[in-house]
Design brief:
Layout lengths: L1 E6 L5 E8 L3 H12 L6 E3 L2 E3 L1 E6 L6
Antiparallel strand pairs: 1-2, 1-5, 3-4
Length: 62
């Protein structure tokens, strides 16, 4: 599955969208994981900036 994230200059997600689905339960878990995460913000000329990025997510069943 692939998510598209919008991250602010503080490293917090602003918006998340499922681009490629893996099934409703997997999608839900991926969204929960992202919403509780912080990220390093993108930098432009040494300054933190808003950005959009793709995030592939892999699940392994045991």
């Amino acid at each position: 599955m692939v998510l598209q994230l919008t991250i602010d200059e503080n490293g917090c997600f602003v918006h998340v969208e499922v681009v490629t689905r893996a099934g409703s339960r997997f999608d839900e878990e991926a969204l929960l994981a992202v919403k509780s995460s912080t990220f390093k913000p993108a930098r432009l000329n040494g300054r933190p900036v808003f950005c959009k990025t793709g995030l592939p997510m892999l699940f392994q069943l045991k």
